[in-house]
Automatic annotation (TrEMBL):
Its main location: secreted. It is found in: Secreted, Extracellular space. The keyword Disulfide bond applies. This is Kallikrein-8. One of its GO terms (biological process) is digestion. The lineage of its organism: Eukaryota, Metazoa, Ecdysozoa, Arthropoda, Hexapoda. Belongs to the peptidase S1 family. CLIP subfamily. GO terms for molecular function: serine-type endopeptidase activity. One of its GO terms (cellular component) is extracellular region. Residues 1-114 form the Peptidase S1 domain. Keywords: Digestion, Disulfide bond, Hydrolase, Protease, Serine protease. Pfam families: Trypsin. It comes from the Eukaryota.
């Protein structure tokens, strides 16, 4: 598995709040660009580890409160799990996802789920 599908579009799915803190009644999806590690590290100085990837960063389009735990899908494979981002949603900062291709994360998932 290539870690995070760098520089490719991916789909994030969730129930997070939208504009004006509106909670959607229908599951939402959004196309986001997987950001290169250098971009992620430049935005989130000293907060990014090898177990993380970043995506998005377009004003008005972002994960938000309530999306945590949702999937980030690239080329039909889940490559990430929504983790955290800016306190203000939909600003020009990429969101941070757990990188499920990371060996440490894969081992954790296997140990906890038996899959």
């Amino acid at each position: 598995i290539t870690t995070g599908c760098p520089d490719q579009l991916a789909t994030v799915i969730g129930w997070g709040t939208a504009e004006d803190s509106y909670v959607p009644l229908i599951l939402q999806e959004l196309q986001v660009l997987i950001q290169p590690r250098k971009v992620c590290e430049a935005v989130w100085i000293e907060q990014i580890t090898d177990t993380m990837i970043c995506a998005g960063g377009v004003v008005g389009e972002d994960t938000c409160n309530g999306d945590s735990g949702g999937p980030l899908i690239c080329n039909g494979y889940q490559v990430g799990i929504v983790s955290w981002g800016s306190r203000k949603c939909a600003i020009e900062m990429p969101a941070v996802f757990t990188d499920v291709a990371n060996v440490e994360i894969r081992d954790f998932i296997r140990n906890k789920t038996g899959v």
